[in-house]
Amino acid sequence: MPKITTRTYDSLAFESLHRGGLPPVMARIYAARGIVNSAQLEMALARLLPFDQIRNIHLMAGLLADAIEARKRLLIIADYDSDGATACAVGIRILRMMGADVGYLVPNRFEYGYGLTPEIVDLAYTTSRPDILITVDNGIASIDGVQAAKALGMQVFITDHHLPGDELPEATAIINPNQPGCPFPSKHIAGVGVIFYLMLALRAEFRQRGAFDTGKEPNLASFLDLVALGTVADVVKLDDNNRILVQQGLRRIQAGLACSGINALLKIAGRKIQQTSTYDLGFILGPRLNAAGRLDDMSLGIECLITDDAGAAEQMARQLDTLNVRRREIESNMQDSALSKLESSLHAESARIQSAYSVCLFDQSWHQGVIGILASRIKDRYHRPVIIFAPGNDGEMKGSGRSIPGFHLRDALDLVSKRYPEVIVKFGGHAAAAGLTIVAERFVQFCEAFEATAQSLLTEADLTRVIETDGELDESDMNMELAQHLTRQVWGQGFPQPTFNASFYVENQRVVGEKHLKLKLRKIPSSSMPAQDLNSASSYDAILFFHNDLLPDVIDAVYRLQINEFNGRAMLQLLLEHWSQVETKPIG
C-alpha cells in the first residue's frame, strides 16, 4: 500500500509569493515546488539563461560558422527517441536556414545500437563523405566512434546532455552542460535544448560577422514547438529554464504556429491544437514519435518534423500512429508475459523475491524497442529499480532500466561495471533511466551484482511507494477558477502537477465506456479543517479511469482538479489517481 504524504514548503517562500499577489492555495503549491519568488513564474524568453554560460559554445559556433562559409558538408548523427528526433529537426531546419549543406543519419537501434559507434562512422563515411559529424542527444560516451571518425579525416562536434563517464571523447569540440567545468546552471536541459542553444550562439556568431546586415535574421523562437516537445517527451526535470522553453513552445503550438508535423500528429490523435498541454506532448505526441525508433526507423519521425508540406506530414503522422498501435500491442503482450514470469517467481520463491531490492528479467521473445516501456511499467507496479533485457547480437543482451527515487541508475551501473568489468559491455543514461549491453552468458552474474548494489544503496523505506500531494483543499477552492489556473501552467518531471487528498462519500457511481467509473462524490470535512455542515457540503463529479469495479461507500482519495468539456459545456471534475477504503465510517 502506498504511503500518502503532504508536500512540505518553505514558509518564507509562501509568504513572499502570497505578498506578491498569489492566492494562498497557489502560493502553497508553488512554494512546495521550490519557487521562492514571483519572478520565477515569469515565462518570458528574456528570462532564458544566456547561451555563453555553456562551456565551448563559442568555440563550436565559430567552427560551425567557418564550416558553413567554406561549404563543408555537415552530417547530424541523431538518437532514435523523441529528444533525438526533435533535436535533429531543430538542427536541420536552422542550419539549412543559415545556408549549411547538412544532412542527417539516425542509427537503426537493432543494427547499430546507440550513439556514434565506429559502425555508424563507417556508414556515414561510405554514404555521405561528410567533413563534420554533429551529434545530437548522444556522443558523450562515444570514445571509439570519435577515434574512428578522426582516422577517416572527419571532425566531430558533440552536443549532448547525458552524464559523461570518466573519460571524454577526443572530439573537436563538446558542448554538454553536464561535462566537467561547464558552469551552465540548467543541468537538466534536454538534448534538443542543447542544440537549440548552439543555434542561438551560431546566430550571434553570424551576426558579429555581418551576415544579416542585408537581410532578416532568422527567428529562432519559431522552433520552440520542437524544443518543447523534445523536452517534455524526454522527461527531464522542468527547472525554471526548461519551463520557459516548454511554455513558449506550447504558446506557439496553441496559436497554430507549430510545424506541419506537430500539427499533423495532433490532428491524427484527435487533439485540439488550441488546448495542447504538456500531457499531449509527453503522452500523445512523444509515444507516436518514439514508435518509429522503437519498431522501425526514426527517419520517419524526423522527416515528419522537418517537412513543410502539410499533406506529406499528415501521411507520415498516420504511419507513426499505426506504428504506435503496433507498439502498444507488443508492449501489452510483453507486459503480460513479464508479469506472469514475475508472479511465477513470486510464487516459487516468495521469501527471496519479496526481500529483493531490484528486478531483472529476460525473455528470448521480447522486443528491444519496447523493453524500456516494460521496465517502466514493472517499476511502477513493484516500486523497485528494474532492468528488462532482450536478445542482442553476437552473444549479447540489450537492457533498458528504470529507477525509483533514491537510486541513481547510471551511477549504480557504473559501480557494477567497475566491480565486474567482464559483465557490462557498455552503458549510459541518467538517474531515472539507463540503457546497457551485457555479455549474455553473464546474465545471472549481472543480476546478482545489480541486486547487491541496490541493497547497498537503498533502504527498506525506499521500497515503499510514496504518493505526495498538496494536502486538502477547502471547498471554497474546489472551483473552476482554480482548475483553469492549474490547466494553464506547465507541469511535468520535477515540477509535478498538483494533486490533493480528502475523504469522500460515494453517492453515486456507474461504469462508462466499459472500463471507467463515473462517480458523484461528497467531501467529508477533515478533523484538521473548520467544521462544516455535512448536509450543505457540495457534491462533485469524478472519474476513475481503467477501473470498472464499484467502490465502497466511503473512500480516501488522491485527485486532481480537471475541466470536463461535454456537449459544449465545461464543468469541474475530480480525476481520481488513487483511492483506498475507509474502514471506519465517519460520523455525519
Overall description:
Residues 359-454 form the DHHA1 domain. It comes from Nitrosomonas marina. GO terms for molecular function: 5'-3' exonuclease activity; nucleic acid binding. Belongs to the RecJ family. InterPro entries: DDH_dom, DHH_sf, DHHA1_dom, RecJ, RecJ_OB, SSDNA_exonuclease_RecJ. With 588 residues, this protein is an alpha/beta fold. The chain folds into 3 domains: 47-323, inorganic pyrophosphatase (n-terminal core) (Alpha-Beta Complex); 356-463, Diaminopimelate Epimerase, Chain A, domain 1 (Roll), CATH 3.10.310; 467-581, OB fold (Dihydrolipoamide Acetyltransferase, E2P) (Beta Barrel). It is 41% helix and 20% strand. The protein has 19 helices and 17 strands. The strands form 4 sheets. The chain has a 5-stranded parallel beta sheet with strand order 3-2-4-5-6, sandwiched between helices. A hairpin with a 2-residue loop joins strand 16 (554-566) and strand 17 (569-581). The longest helix has 39 residues, at 310-348. It is globular, with a radius of gyration of 25 Å. The mean pLDDT is 92.
Discrete helix count: 19
Shape: globular
Biggest sheet: strand arrangement: 3-2-4-5-6
Strand content: 15-25%
What is the CATH architecture term of the largest domain? Alpha-Beta Complex
Low-confidence stretches are none
**Helix percent band:** 40-55%
- Provide the residue-averaged pLDDT: 92
SSE class: alpha/beta
User: Radius of gyration in whole Å, from Cα?
Assistant: 25 Å
| CATH class wording of the largest domain | Alpha Beta
Q: Termini, distance in Å?
A: 27 Å
Domain DHHA1: 359-454
Domain DDH: 74-231
Family: Belongs to the RecJ family.
Organism: Nitrosomonas marina
